[in-house]
Specification:
14 strands; seven-stranded mixed beta sheet; Metallo-beta-lactamase, Chain A; 28% strand; single chain; alpha/beta; 244 residues
Length: 244
């Protein structure tokens, strides 16, 4: 299974990272629709797509507006958008309000159920996360592998059991440890707690995403610190592809 990182930044895009968007191109599954969502048609290997939204903050949903033309051109035959009811309502009432976006793409909006079947025998589950306005974390378990996506939250044991034993953990890390105060103010994570959580959970690999776009240095989060706790840590950049 291949995971493609289409947007690995938070808040707003910069020259290196677009905002949140991850895709499993072989099975047409996408997590979040930030500004990196414009890359989906280029990478997609199916003619259908299931889009799972973590929450309704603009940096995670604005890319839905980019999908009208690919659908009209037949690049995508149908597209489902999954989320909690408040998230779906916010998207439909505000992003696709007539004065803002008068021709809405023909999405099928689907409220999340406790379990959802995913192609190739996968089962998707989700859990609530602490973040202003709420957020959902996702996990897919196949017979031979597993993947979890945790974004926009402060790393904590609240969802430890949810990610326990996952092969590939993609976790937000908006700030380095030196900016932990900002993490607490904004409901985001910083480096050390994320690495400690991956270690406690017994994850196979950890990939850090949702980096503060104002941090443009080569190593914005302190990878040495993370790897001293959890050696199998990687900082994602846009267009990174991982097999798992």
């Amino acid at each position: 299974m291949r995971l493609t990182f289409l947007g690995t930044g938070g808040y707003h895009p910069n020259e290196k990272r677009h905002t949140a968007c991850l895709m499993l191109p072989e099975i047409g599954v996408v997590f979040d629709a930030g500004t990196g969502f414009f890359r989906v048609p280029q990478k997609l290997q199916t003619d259908d797509v299931r889009i799972f939204l973590s929450h309704a903050h603009l940096d995670h949903i604005v890319g839905l507006t980019y999908f009208l033309v690919p659908i009209l051109k037949g690049v995508v035959v149908w597209a489902q958008v999954f989320g909690t009811r408040p998230t779906l309502d916010a998207v439909q009432e505000h992003v696709f309000a007539k004065p803002i976006f008068p021709v809405s793409p023909p999405f099928e909006f689907v409220e999340l159920k406790p379990q959802i079947e995913i192609p190739q025998g996968g089962i998707l589950t989700h859990c609530g996360l602490d973040h202003p306005g709420g957020c959902q974390g996702y996990r897919i378990d196949w017979p031979d592998r597993s993947f979890a996506y945790i974004t926009d939250t402060m790393a904590s044991d609240r969802y430890l059991e949810f990610i326990r034993g996952v092969d590939l953990l993609v976790h937000e890390c908006n700030f380095p440890d030196s900016l932990r105060d900002w993490a607490e103010k904004t409901g985001h994570s910083h480096t050390t707690p994320v690495a400690e959580l991956a270690k406690k959970a017994g994850a196979g690999r950890l990939v850090l995403v949702h980096v503060d776009p104002e941090l443009t240095q080569e190593d914005p989060l302190g990878l040495e610190t993370a790897r001293s706790i959890f050696p199998e840590t990687l900082l994602a950049e846009d267009l990174l592809e991982l097999e798992f």
